[in-house]
Structures are given as C-alpha cells and as structure tokens.
Amino acid sequence: MKYWKPYNKLQEKAPRFDNSAEDVKASRKSEDTDDPVDVWVFEPIAIRLTHLFIRAGISANAVTFMSLLTGVGGSILLYPQNRWINLMGILIISLAAVLDCCDGQVARLTNTSSQVGRVLDGTVDIIKCFATYLVLGFRMMNETIPFTDTVWSVYIWIVILVTMHCHASQARMADYYRGLHLFFLQGSSRSTLARSEDLKRELRSLPKHSLLFKRIYRFLYLVYTKAQELLTPKAQILLDAVEKEKGPVAAKTSEAYVSRSRQYIQLTNTLTYYIRAYGLFVLLMLGIHAFYYPFVIIVLEAVKYYMITKYERIAKDLYKQFFSGSDPEDQNGRKADRKVL
Fold first, then answer.
1. Average pLDDT, the chain
2. Distance from CA of residue 338 to its chain's centroid?
3. Residue from 9, 1, 3, 29 nearest 103 by CA
4. Is the pLDDT of residue 331 over 70?
C-alpha cells in the first residue's frame, strides 16, 4: 500500500527476534537509568510488540499516538465510582505504559530517534497525565473531603492545579538528570541532552517560511529546557567547562560524574511514571485517592529537592577538582549569571 511506503526502511531494519538478552539490551537507553519496573514488568511484554510494529512498518511516532489514545481512553474509566470499571481503566492505562516503552524501543532498534520524537513523547506523557487529573477532578467534585462531611466541589481544582505543577516540575527534573547521566556516560554524540543556547540557535536559524509546527515545538522545547537549567546552575557551569575542554580532563570528569551519579540515579525513577501512577491506582482501589495529592505535593517534592541538592553538589565538587579549583559560583571572580529566556 502506498501509505506504508515511507516505513519500508523500518521493515528492512527489523532485527530477528529471539528474546535474547542482547536483543532486549539493544532496545534500552542504558542499564544505569533503567527503571526496575520497566525491566521486570513492561519491557518483556513491550519487546514482543516492538518487533511486530517494526515488521509492520509502524514508526515510533505512530506507536506514541497509540499510547496517547489508549492512555486517555483508560483514564476516562476512572470516573465512575465502580471499582471493576476503575480496574479495567487501570489495565488499559497499563497497556498505554507498555506502548510507551515500545515507541522508544522502535526508535532505538531502527535508529530513527529524533528531537521531534523526543518532544512528541514527552508531550503525549503530559497529555495522558492531564487526562487522568481532569477525570479525577470531575469525579471528586462530588466526593467529600477526608475526615469531614464537606464536598470538595470546585475547590478540588485548586488542589489539582498545585499537584499538576509539582508533578510537571518533578518529571522535568528527573528527565534532566537522566539525560545528564547519559551525556557523561555515552558522550555528547549519543546523548539527547539539550542545551538552551543550542535550541535558541536552532530556532533563529529556521527559515522565515518554515512550518508553524516546527517553530512551536522548538519554542516549547526551549522553554522546557530553560526551566531545567534554571534549577541546575552548577551543572550548567560544569557542562560549559567539559564542552570547552574536550580532552583527557573532560574524559576524567565524565568518568567521575557517572561514578558518583550512580548513587542517586534511581531517585529519578522515584519521580517518573510508575511510583506516582501505581501509587494513585492503589489508593483509588482502596477508596482513599484524596491522599495522593499530599503525597505528590509534600513527599515527592521533597525527593525532588533532595535530588537537585545532591546533583548540584556533584557538579560543584567536580568543577573544583578538574577545572579551576574555585567554586563554580565564583568563576572568573564573579557570580556566573546565566541569561534567562
């Protein structure tokens, strides 16, 4: 069929699937950043679907859209106050999580990873989470606040908006530190870590008549990246020094960073999908889902700032050790103020 012609190359690149350890390993980003839930639960299922998608000529971005439709559809089933319907919704959302593994596997196994795909994947994750919060918000408007006889009414939306803000910030920083770890582990040529200055140049270099979509997604990616960089000033100074050096010192810095980062890299998995999602699902099935919100706002927010503190300490220590011997905040005798977008 004519529609499938753009994907014929995917079919040619489809590896023979034998469920070997090497086959599964090739579909991952890195063992260091692997989420244990992915490794033991979702990846063994996803890898089978991944090879079917590749042989059918279905691209990674198409699988991402499948994940979107499945995740939103499952979220709708969380609205009824019926545990069996809710359980069906949870199972469908779990299928969306499997598909979310598949899109990355398809991209890596066929060498079709791209910036557009990365942005699309992140955007779809946000939409799926937004759908879940939206459905629960409408459901809880008619439920009572714990330990009271007062109905939440419209006030639940204040709680949800605060939770969504914390959720977005936590996921953004977890994504950043995973990317930073891969940057030092695999090198800049294989890393997906973005720098805001590079993204600004890309945005400015777009032709005047380029598609609006290209401008919008690059601008949103720039805003996203800048938000990450504003919370990691010492890491930015270390990155600047490493990229400028590009020699034995940079290699030693990378090795030291990866060694120290391995102590904390699993914190990033605490702030990504599974603990948050399945914590919510357990609470929902127990009928105490209102306690999910303080868990995100208080507990996971504390984990986020603990993670940032530890990683900023690593960056500060390595800059002192390998570059100037001075505090990164006092580089060249002045505070390194980075321009804000």
1. 85
2. 24
3. 29
4. no
